[in-house]
## 1
Amino acid sequence: MAEFEDKVLHELDGIREYDNPMPAWLMAIFWGSLIFSAAYLGFYALSFGEGSMEAEYRAGTQRAVASVDAYFDANPLVPPSPADLLAGAKDPAVLEMGASRFTRSCASCHGEKAQGLIGPNLTDDHWIHGGTVERVFQSVAKGWPAKGMPPWGRAVKPEELSALVSFVRSVQGSNPPNARAPEGDRVVPEPIPGH
Ligand code: HEC
């Protein structure tokens, strides 16, 4: 212990307290991390300043909304002809696109097999808002927001919107299990050409 002799601060009953300060490099890390954590907290958790996470998030959201708006402004929704919508109901590529979009965007309310869940059964021949492909297109594009059916005209691409309607026409009369009871008026399904 002789080498510490000069650094003894106190001695009491033979117990010695030495003065051994933390080495400078350790103090630097200690203070450095304190200062860093204060800055980090302000910047990330409390979101002060330009380029903070929150500002970045807002700018990113704004850019995304603007690009979606620009897309739909450049591709205005032109209702396709009923003949095209009906022809799509037997085109495998169109039906595949429609079915996959249906699973992602519609099945949560209308059921995996369009049998109806929160929303009406789309496979029977009864319709609240009309069952021609033209009317179904309007229902899907504009929705019935007051009744819980969202509008999809500016949420999915025009070709996907048409594909959805063709898909809905294709599942007419498919009689899925656990179907929701018919709602609305009976509409005779339009024939799919060449079917
Ligand atoms: C958040 C739930 C919800 C989602 C998601 C949803 N719908 Fe609907 N949909 C409804 C409800 C509820 C109605 C019934 C509206 C009414 O009673 O007027 C409806 C009505 C409809 C109708 C009119 C039915 C009729 O009898 O006239 C069609 C067609 C339709 N939805 C298609 C779709 C398609 C296609 C999608 C996916 C792109 C979709 N819906 C997604 C809830 C939803």
## 2
Amino acid sequence: MIYESVIGLEVHLQLKTATKLFCGCSTKFGAPPNSQTCPVCLGLPGVLPVLNERVLEWGVRVALAFDCGIARVMKFDRKQYFYPDLPKNFQISQFDMPLAQHGHLDITMEEETRRIGIRRIHLEEDAGKLLHEASPTESFVDFNRTGVPLLEIVSEPDLRSPDEAYQYLVGLKAVVQYLDVSTCNMEEGSLRCDTNISLRRPGASSLGSKVEIKNLNSFRAVKLALEHEMKRQALALDRGERIPQETRLWDAKGQRTESMRSKEGSADYRYFPEPDLVPFVLDEGFIRRIREALPELPASRSRRFQTSHQLSAYDAGVLTQHRSLAELFEGALRAGASPKLAANWIMGDLLAYLNATRLEPDAVKLRPEGLAHLLELIQDGTLSGPMAKEVFLQMLERGVDPVELVSERGLRQIVDPAALERIAEEVIQANAKSVEAYHNGKAAALTHLIGQAMKRSQGRADPRQMSALLKRKLDAARQETK
Ligand SMILES: [Zn+2]
């Protein structure tokens, strides 16, 4: 049977404030275990939490960027549960009065834009971390992460496919990076997500029972887990089975989900108002100042790129997905680059390099002026295509300016026809077998000869010119032997 999937996402975002949510401990990642703790975040008796104002400000900044309504009264609640990484046996969170509600994020799917609702955004403190690797028989607890500020962003179940879920996460991360409030580094746990999915017959208004999936450590894992879960639930429903409401874990190795526990309801957490933090009213002026200071966000920047730089919606979307890519592009334009050429190099060679090295865009040393200079050197014929690629790589890895590199290394495209002729002649003489193969109709032999010529010129010949020259010479030689 055909089913429609109903998908929601919960994103936990670690805010990159210097100190924790309710105490002055550092939040720096990677410190020795338990070196960043104090009586407050260890939950020792008699201590009182004090709210970090910066967290509140950044939480409001994120909420406004997603067009949420901000709560006027700030109230915190205790969420009780027992787990070794939670020293207080409760977590300070927000239950019935979240920081913000009713926002949205627009995602672009091929030609269609879909508006995905954001149900709520609330503040809470992170738990510690269990370490199992140090010993086969013991587990250790690191409380450095206890009390680090988290923002939980809960979507409405508006997503209809694993691809939409993926796009939502990409879009959400882009907005948060523009706001500069989180590193969004999934490997360090700064961005974590859980997803939930149920299936129903198309057009049905009621929802099927929801399965939550945890242990997702990349956006790709979210997509794969949802694809797997859609198939698993559809098969079960086809057999007339009931889908139990439960939490499942994604097993990345086995590429499948496994049942973890039946889903707990909010009653299991016995929420009650946090008695040590008195509810308070958020000042209108505080919210207004944050709203006025919001930066240009990816969606409006993409629209601006399309209208002022004549980029396609697709190109503008890719370039604005990451703040530093967008800034590189605009910086190159300010330094005189043409929008189309700059976009091509960023979306072509730079993105290929980032994919291959798995680096984030801000990790490369490429400077916008350098990109503009490279484009000039290509246009004025100083650099051939392959030389430009080689120079670009040096720019990415060492941050050098191409103009300096060209003069320092004596890189300059060979344009002198006599010099090119000489190289072609040498290659033909040194590769008799390939020449014969070409004359016997093996077109691939020409590719080999071009490769040899490029090598002999140390990449400084223009490959198109060299290929035409070799072909002309070989064909002329064939005429003579006939
Ligand atoms: Zn502390």
